[in-house]
Amino acid sequence: MKGHMIVLDHVGGFEAAAYLVDGKLDDILIDDQDAPRPGAIFRGICDRPIKGQGGMLLRLPDGQTGFLRAAKGLRPGQSVLVQVTGYSDAGKAVPVTDRVLFKSRYAIVTPGKPGRNISRQIMDDDRRDQLLAIAHEVFESEYGLILRSSCSEATDEEISEDIMAMLSMAETVLADAQGTRPEALTEGDSPHTLAWREWHGRATVETEPGGLENHGVLDQLLQIHDPMVRIGEGTMYVEPTRACVAVDVNTGNDMSPSAALKTNLAAARALPRALRLRGLAGQICIDFVSISKAHRKQVEQSLRAAFKADPIETSLVGWTAMGLFEMQRKRERAPFPIRILEEIS
Fold this sequence. Notes:
- The protein is an alpha+beta fold.
- It has 4 domains: 53 residues, no CATH class; 60 residues, CATH 2.40.50.140; 76 residues; 113 residues, Aminopeptidase (3-Layer(aba) Sandwich), CATH 3.40.630.
- Helix content is 28%, strand content 31%.
- A hairpin with a 4-residue loop joins strand 4 and strand 5.
- The two termini are 24 Å apart.
């Protein structure tokens, strides 16, 4: 099927949302009930400082532990409002921040950062003026407000309602920030909610039960378990280890310099999707096919262009002395649950 489509369904008993481009699975969100969702807001209790890292371990609900960086001025026993920023490896603390944001489809309320701002992606000056007028009319608060790019296609009423809903949520949560016990104040966005917020407007939406199977998503999910990704005549192996994600790029039978460059460029374009679907992050080391230093620049440019369009923050570190390329990727998602792949296989 041509075009962009969002499929909202359940798989293995878990809520799931898939994003398809011309029938090919481009992104997948699935609920992992074993870990707090990114975006969830907690009242945490400071436990003990980590001197070497300048952070603080926090007590969170259900016996969980959080880690807050740059925790200057906090003392054990003090309550602090924090928001989950990503997933942690097994046995490690949940990463959190004290810079809490309240995000919705059209608006972001930013406590501690006052002002009213419009997304730079909205270029039309008249529309920007209209949105600023709406913000001044309905947003009477000391908090900050950002109106997102999706506002360009929304009605004034939809935007106003969204702003007021987020402001009400922010006021309710912040009023409950103090306390002596850890408490979950919001759950974070489910896959369906996140899909509506981040993808809606770019694609048609399918919500019928069985949509993942009907559109071939389940068959494509099974490929995630296979580390091999075909890229034209070559292959790319994406394999997570305890220390890092290792990526190995290989040409086919053609060992010429032109084939090496072509395969490396194809791998650079395919890598964001491969990492996104598998939920892989952290330190990533890529062993590209050996090429000249002049061709390395082309590969790096292709990588930068590919990851610029990816929604997950990724820092391209560069080439090592041994010819590997290193990246650091924010751990916003958990690895795709293997148990779900086993259920649908």
